[in-house]
Amino acid sequence: MRITAVDGARATIAAEGLEQECSLMLVPGAGVGDYVLVHAGYAISVLDETEAQQTYDLLREIASFDESGPDDPGDGET
């Protein structure tokens, strides 16, 4: 998610129409415009734009699988 505003150790972050807040306590050097990986309300890592785009792409790919899994049915076992 990309940081859109910082207020002390709190940040407003946004991605794909979703906006929320997170703590910057674990990444104190992060600022507006940076991409961060967020877990449980805490930014845990700063990503460069390429890493962020690759992460978004992987998340979209995962979301595209329906409950039956990817198009390759494998050996048919469940």
Task: Describe it.
With 78 residues, the chain is an alpha+beta fold. It is built from one helix and five strands, in the order βββββα. A three-stranded antiparallel β-sheet has the order 1-2-3, with no helix packed on it. A two-stranded antiparallel sheet has the order 4-5. Strand 4 and strand 5 form a beta hairpin. The longest helix is centred in the last third of the chain and has 16 residues. The radius of gyration is 16 Å and the shape is elongated. It starts with a strand and ends in a 14-residue tail after the last helix.
Mean pLDDT: 88
Order of helices and strands: EEEEEH
Level of helix content?
10-25%
Q: Ends: how far apart?
A: 34 Å
Instruction: Determine the strand fraction and express it as a percent band.
Output: 35-45%
What's the helix count?
1
Major sheet characteristics? 3 strands, antiparallel
Helix/strand structural class: alpha+beta
Work out the radius of gyration. 16 Å
Number of strands: 5
List the uncertain runs.
none
Shape: elongated
Biggest sheet: strands side by side, in what order? 1-2-3
Task: Produce the secondary structure layout.
Layout: E1 2-7, E2 10-15, E3 18-23, E4 35-39, E5 42-47, H1 49-64
Main traits of this protein?
alpha+beta, two-stranded antiparallel ribbon, 78 residues, three-stranded antiparallel sheet
What's the short version?
The chain is 21% helix and 37% strand.
